[in-house]
Amino acid sequence: MMPRLNASVSLPDTVAAPGYTPADHGTGIVHLGLGAFFRAHQAVYTDDALARSGGDWRILGVSLRSTAPAEELAPQDGLYTLIERGDGTPKARIIGAISGAVSGATEIEAIRAALAAPKTRIVTLTVTEKGYGIDRARGGADESHPAVAEDLASPEAPHGVLGLLVQALKLRRAAGTAPFTVLCCDNLPENGTMLRAGVVDFANRCDPELADWIAAEVAFPSCMVDRITPARTETTLADAARLTGHDDAAAIETEPFTQWVIEDRFPAGRPDWEAGGALFVEDVAPYEQMKLRMLNGAHSMLAYSGFLAGHRYVRDTVADDDLRRLIQRQFSAAAATLEPLPGIDFDSYAQQLLERFANPSIAHETYQIAMDGTQKLPQRILQPALSALQSGQNVRPFAFATAAWMRYSLGRTDDGETYALRDPLEAEIAERLANAQTSESIFSALAALRGLFPETLMSAPEWRGEVIGALSSMLEIGVSAAIRAEAASELP
Ligand code: CS2
């Protein structure tokens, strides 16, 4: 056993320690969603901001349901090792931006109090696409989401995202405390606007006057976030111990690349996130679209098809010549749906994405990316498919990706091995697919899922033909052969 990492240990010179004294800085941010991505992204930018410009901007980390993140971080004074894996040996750095870590399962009162406290000036969130409880088709709170339903029934004792934000804003308004800024950091299109609609709608059902106040007074800037962060493994923990000489239950690993593009609307102030390279812009939508459609769209396509073709990691899909061609095709098809973005060349961006996907030291599982497909498909594949359809572009790459998701939804590989979909609609999907055997019946069964597929897209004969065609090929010759045939169809 090695000693556990905490604020009083001394570290080897090879490990970068925070460039400031963490305990000298107060807490100004409450973050909901204490997973690996937050630790590899926002916490690191905040660490850089504290080192360069100081301020009371440390972060109280909250995991709403799980107790594991708080159990990992609290005994370590919030410190953890960030391992960057690029070329050469992995680099370790200790992040000091987290001042405390609590779980909604055990300390909900402390969380409600922190959200209402005047010193909290920003609330940031990475709760995954499904965590919000927002009906994205309609734009507002989704009453069928368990946390939303419970919190609407007892808004004075909330546990979920929308309920907690609304209650805190209500308390702040009553106390004459300025509102906090709300910053959504999940991979959703126009994520600030979307969260604002959910919060205002939730408030409107409990207290319409409060809803008006939130709409007028609270800023919800949108942002685009990017850093490939695989789920932590035993290797991560072993490497952290080896590199730092300390046991670290909260260590995580990530790639060297990182990007954060944010709308600069922070009436209550903000950390100097530029110190970590964040870019502040007027309108983040074009950056978001580029990232969601090119990076995440290709990720989803390669996750479903690659997983079914027996590829465990993203890097293996890039090493497969046929699949690599389809990844590149996905980048180009997605790029063709975008408005030009001054200063950004989509071909170079695509080239950089391919290199990132190929990173030999990042073990990013296709099965991890395949999770929650119903939450990811709209912004990654279906919206760009609709744009392509409407502007007369070829929809085939998007149709192939959609067919791969439909094939994956059957829950078994070509060898008959079964796996869990890990999707909030998993039970409904299984029920709908119970008697579906042919590609047509699978298409129709899944097309009927509520709020997922745009009607205009699904009723277009060209789209329907391409999806059913790709799915038939996957069912008839198997996914690996279907990938090969699809890639061959692209050859001149
Ligand atoms: C991935 C993303 O799991 C997924 O769905 O596509 O988490 C992806 O790795 C990040 O968005 C990269 O920034």
Written description of the protein model:
This protein is of the alpha/beta class and 492 residues long. It is built from 21 helices and 11 strands. It has helices at 36-40, 42-53, 68-73, 108-116, 146-153, 161-175, 191-206, 208-217, 234-244, 285-308, 314-319, 321-335, 346-358, 366-370, 373-390, 396-408, 426-433, 439-447, 455-458, 461-477, 479-488, and strands at residues 27-32, 58-63, 80-84, 91-95, 98-103, 122-125, 181-184, 223-226, 252-254, 259-263, 279-281. The strands form 3 sheets. The chain has a 5-stranded parallel sheet with strand order 5-2-1-6-7, with helices on both faces. Strands 4-3-9 form a 3-stranded mixed sheet, sandwiched between helices. The chain is globular. It starts with 26 loop residues before the first strand and ends with a helix.
Radius of gyration: 23 Å
Protein structure class: alpha/beta
Instruction: Please give the number of β-strands.
Output: 11
Q: What overall form do the CA principal axes indicate? A: globular
Strand content: 5-15%
Bound ligands: D-mannonic acid
Characterize the biggest β-sheet: 5 strands, parallel
- Which stretches are poorly predicted, pLDDT < 50 over at least 5 residues? none
The percentage helix is 40-55%
Count of discrete alpha- or pi-helical segments spanning 4 or more residues: 21
The whole-number mean of residue pLDDT values reads 97
How far is the N terminus from the C terminus? 59 Å
Order of adjacent strands in the largest pleated sheet: 5-2-1-6-7
What is the structure about, briefly put?
This protein has 21 helices and 11 strands. By secondary structure, it is α/β, with parallel strands linked by helices.
